[in-house]
Design goal:
It contains eight helices and no strands. The protein has helices at 9-14, 19-42, 55-83, 98-102, 107-127, 132-158, 164-168, 173-193. The chain has one domain (9-193): Arp2/3 complex 21 kDa subunit ARPC3 (Orthogonal Bundle). By secondary structure, the protein is an all-alpha fold.
């Protein structure tokens, strides 16, 4: 393991830029990331035992590709759009908008999106993105923290005497493992093809 941070996957793919060109590249990456999050919130994939969206997979891949700073900023701006009332989250506008939606049952998971992107980016800037085991391990850890925050918020909202794990974890566990495996394979595969990877 390197003791210094490596160039992000996005930098290796697109090249390192300075000044206005670097700002423009980062803005483009943020826009692409937010669009991917919005689209992934709208797509439901048939799965067992419940249909799944691809949002957590996109969150983890943004962290892996962008690094913790830009990845965290991308997810933070996505959450800010939702907080301002834009229908960017799963189930919006039908299930509400803005802060009211974010204070609902999915609020902990939404905050977890930001934390997971930062954790994934931070770890992979140090471990690199070429090893599928390193990528998968980082993503699994980040996703575990994401779900811990989601479950914590469910407990606060509904009480710890309720079946929190049955509501907020068990139905999604198999889907999350599948998404992590796919995200890790894609990230490691792209990293091996990238320049200076």
């Amino acid at each position: 393991m390197s003791t210094t941070t490596a160039p992000t996957l996005a930098t290796r793919l697109l090249g390192s830029r300075e000044g206005a060109a670097a700002i423009a590249q980062n803005v483009m990456l943020v826009v692409v990331g937010i669009a991917a999050l919005w689209i992934s919130a709208r797509i439901k994939v048939p799965f067992y035992p419940v249909d799944m969206t691809l949002q957590t997979m996109v969150v983890l891949m943004i962290g892996a590709a962008y690094g913790w700073r830009l990845g965290g900023a991308t997810v933070a701006l996505y959450l800010a759009q939702g907080a301002m009332g834009m229908p960017v989250f799963t189930g919006t506008p039908e299930k509400g908008l803005g802060i009211a939606y974010m204070m609902g049952p999915t609020g902990g998971y939404l905050i977890g999106f930001f934390v997971a992107a930062v954790i994934t980016g931070w770890l992979l800037e140090r471990f690199g993105t070429r090893s599928i085991l390193a990528v998968g391990g980082a993503m699994l850890f980040a996703d575990t923290v994401l779900f811990a925050l989601g479950l914590l918020w469910l407990g606060v909202l509904f009480g710890w005497d309720k079946p929190i794990l049955e509501w907020g974890l068990y139905p999604f566990a198999l889907g999350e493992c599948t998404k992590i495996a796919l995200a890790a394979a894609l990230t490691a595969g792209i990293a091996r093809l990238a320049k200076n990877g």
